[in-house]
Specification:
The strands form 2 sheets. This protein has a two-stranded antiparallel ribbon. Strands 3-4 form a two-stranded antiparallel sheet. The chain has one domain. A hairpin with a 6-residue loop joins strand 1 (6-9) and strand 2. Residues 53-64 and 107-117 have low confidence and may be disordered. It has 123 residues and is an alpha+beta fold. The chain is globular. It has helices at residues 21-30, 39-47, 96-103, 115-122, and strands spanning 6-9, 16-19, 70-73, 80-83. The protein is 28% helix and 13% strand.
Length: 123
């Protein structure tokens, strides 16, 4: 993302907006993808509470008071989504639908079910 300013089109209102070279550098350093909305639409969406804080099932849970909702593009399907953290840039970020299937293939959820499976086999 080096060079001059870019002219982007807002995904909400359709208006063109300038993504300055300075903003591009800032986004790149933090591993952010290019913005999909103009500044006024981002502010309107954030004011309306539409950045994952309402209706997500965790509005009163941990992470909801930090205010660090970040708009990203899913590394798997390309859908624009928000995450409750700032991506580091060295790892892919997924939307909720793509993240769930990836979770099932590793960690505690893989294998024969742990002790529950053994308990059921005894009976």
């Amino acid at each position: 993302m080096s060079g001059g300013d870019l002219l982007l089109q807002c995904s909400d209102c359709g208006q063109e907006f300038v993504f300055t070279a300075t903003e591009q550098q800032f986004f790149q350093e933090r591993g952010y993808s290019s913005p999909k909305r103009c500044k006024s639409c981002r502010q309107a969406k954030q004011s309306a509470g539409s950045y994952g804080q309402q209706g997500s099932g965790r509005a009163s849970g941990y992470g909801s008071s930090t205010g660090t909702e970040t708009t990203v593009v899913c590394a798997s399907c390309g859908q624009t989504t928000t995450v409750p953290f700032e991506p580091r840039g060295d790892r892919p970020v997924y939307c909720k639908n793509c993240y769930k299937p990836k979770q099932g293939g590793r960690g505690r959820s893989s294998g024969s079910g742990g002790s529950r499976g053994r308990d059921h086999r005894r009976y």
